[in-house]
Amino acid sequence: MHTPCKPVRLSLAWAFCAVFLSLAGCAPQPPQTSATQAGGNTPTHFQDGKFHNNYVDTLPGPLSDLLRWQWNAWRNNLPPPPRTPIPVVAPDLPAISANAVAGSAMRPAITWVGHASMLVQANGLNVLTDPIFSERASPVQWIGPKRNQAPGVALADLPPIDVVVISHNHYDHLDVASVRALNTRSAGKTLFIVPQGLKAWFADEGIQNVVELDWWQSHAVAGVDFMLTPVQHWSARGINDRHKTLWGGWAVMGPAFNWYFGGDSGYSADFKDTATRLAPRLATRGGFDLALIPVGAYEPEWFMQPQHMNPTQALQVQRDLGAKQSVGVHWGTFNLTDEPLDQPPNDLAKARAAQGVTDDQFFLLAIGETRFLKPQP
Questions:
Q1: Which residues in the chain belong to E strands, given as ranges?
Q2: Which of 217, 240, 267, 314 could in theory staple to 213 by disulfide, Cβ–Cβ 3.0 to 4.6 A?
Q3: Which tens digits make up the pLDDT trace of 285-311?
Q4: Pick among 1.10.10.10, 3.30.200.20, 2.60.40.1840, 3.60.15.10: CATH of 93-372
């Protein structure tokens, strides 16, 4: 028996996103994108008014492929429900709060809010990645992918956030209600660091404390460098803005801890390029102490592989980056693709066993869990 009506996965299916935006009467206009770098040169990955990947042609492919994927998913009643519950724990708010104000004594720690949203406490800064606290990853809150569990830490329970990094503008990574609330609760003190072209979008939402960067550009906050690095993905929020803003990962380099956030990406040589280019800057600490690497939203492989990696590829990314430890993100929260929500942990366990990677070297967290990280040699 087939489900008569399945939720549309807006953050990945740009055409379906456009349909719902049109129905809602709120299709956005494309932002006024400036791709000129500080030196006055136009980067090679910005051509004909659009940003491009380094190693593949335009993503996510033709509309016919998108419709084929959606039709097959509907016909086969995909994704199936999870066979085991997604692990959830109550957040350790006293530990998070105490660490947040520890200054130079801050212990490196991560807390998984859910999906690609992670609170990273390191180098005296409280940093949030791709925050989404809304019920749905959608331009409207009456339809679209719905959370399978509440955020691991409520937005109101977060410590003061110094920096928010955004990887790209898909609805499951850039949520308007969440960034508005974060800006309001800090009275504009939270700094949002975003890829090229998104500063105008934030300004339209009344958020002014924003720095936008191109690939390989960096911005320093309290002695910590935030650099946007290339990954293989794409951008769109409506019908007219596909590839009009940039996407990327984040290399965050500080005196006590270096970490990386992959955002959302297919596997590509961009990760090796990142390690090679940043090797001199990472040498003092022997590389990245931790990498946040996406491990979900990878089926069907024929459609997803250019834009989303699977757990086996995530382990390769860890090796490419030279990360001492990694944690999987981008799973267990929203039904976005054809695999059940609990499949990434199973596939990751198989990949680790096949490649001789320990649970400590590449691990997963429960939603709401905080892990204090020990220095790695």
A1: 46-47, 50-51, 109-114, 117-122, 125-129, 163-165, 191-195, 210-213, 218-221, 224-229, 249-253, 258-261, 290-294, 325-329, 362-363, 370-372
A2: 217
A3: 899 999 999 999 988 988 888 899 999
A4: 3.60.15.10
